[in-house]
Write a structure and sequence with these properties.
GO terms for molecular function: 1-acylglycerol-3-phosphate O-acyltransferase activity. This protein has eight helices and nine strands. Helix 4 packs across helix 5 and helix 5 crosses helix 7.
């Protein structure tokens, strides 16, 4: 109920202020379980991704969003509950299996499950290598996957931004459902999981128009941060002697 209350309040405001657009809405089944596999460009994705759908969209989010204290923690819990996020432990190992079980339960209930295969937001607007959890869910639950691409949200609200920019229209594209029934019963095969995941990421690349990078987003983000720090230190060292002279 809280989900629909939040959507009823936010939806008209977002439409009037940002004038979002959508393509391929009919590609999302009107009923029954389905996985929405999306790119993740911005915090704004939480607002616009499910805006045009009349079905509740459930996503899996890190448990940290729900464990904060004080007013900030309360607001975080309220927001992520309001946008349909279910808390999971994403620390790996047994936690990953728990996340898989949660996803399978949501799909078994006939609901819409949203997944970001990259695992984190893109730090530079490019599309990164997908993790194979989405493939395992699709094969074990035997459901279709609908590619779900956000457009312009990176430009509207890039990493570190607290307020979205006006004048940039965010868009949502839903691609044709991907059927992986030819792989059913092969969900323990790592090569199959990688093939399914790569097919999903290729569909997202085609849909979003993003440049694809064949490495994981988290690793690329660490590399970019390290390179920026090294460049900053080099610039500081270069200026040093002139400053002292």
């Amino acid at each position: 109920m809280f989900y629909w209350v939040v959507k009823a309040i936010l939806s008209p405001l977002l439409h009037v202020i940002f004038r979002p657009w959508v393509e391929g809405l009919d590609n999302v089944p009107k009923q029954g379980p389905v996985i929405l596999a999306g790119n993740h460009l911005s915090f704004a994705d939480h607002f616009f991704g499910a805006l045009f759908l009349r079905r509740k969209v459930i996503s899996l989010g890190k448990s940290d969003y729900f464990t904060g204290r004080g007013l900030k923690g309360m607001l975080s819990r309220a927001f992520f509950s309001g946008v349909g996020t279910v808390p999971i432990d994403r620390s790996g190992g047994k936690a990953s299996e728990a996340a898989l079980r949660t996803g399978k339960r949501i799909l078994a209930e006939g609901q819409v499950l949203a997944i970001y295969p990259e695992g984190t937001r893109s730090h530079d607007g490019r599309l990164y290598k997908g993790k194979t959890g989405v493939a395992r869910l699709a094969l074990e639950s035997r459901v279709q996957v609908v590619p779900w691409a956000m457009v312009n949200t990176f430009e509207m609200m890039p990493p570190g931004s607290l307020v979205p920019k006006l004048g940039i229209r965010p868009g949502v594209k839903f691609g044709k459902p991907l059927d992986f029934s030819r792989y059913y019963g092969m969900e323990e095969d790592r090569l199959v999981l990688r093939a399914v995941t790569d097919e999903i990421m290729y569909a997202l690349m085609e849909l979003s128009g993003q440049e694809y990078v064949d490495k994981y987003a988290a690793s690329a983000k660490v590399e970019a941060t390290r390179a920026a720090m090294e460049a900053k230190q080099t610039a500081k060292d270069t200026r040093g002697p002139r400053g002292r002279g």
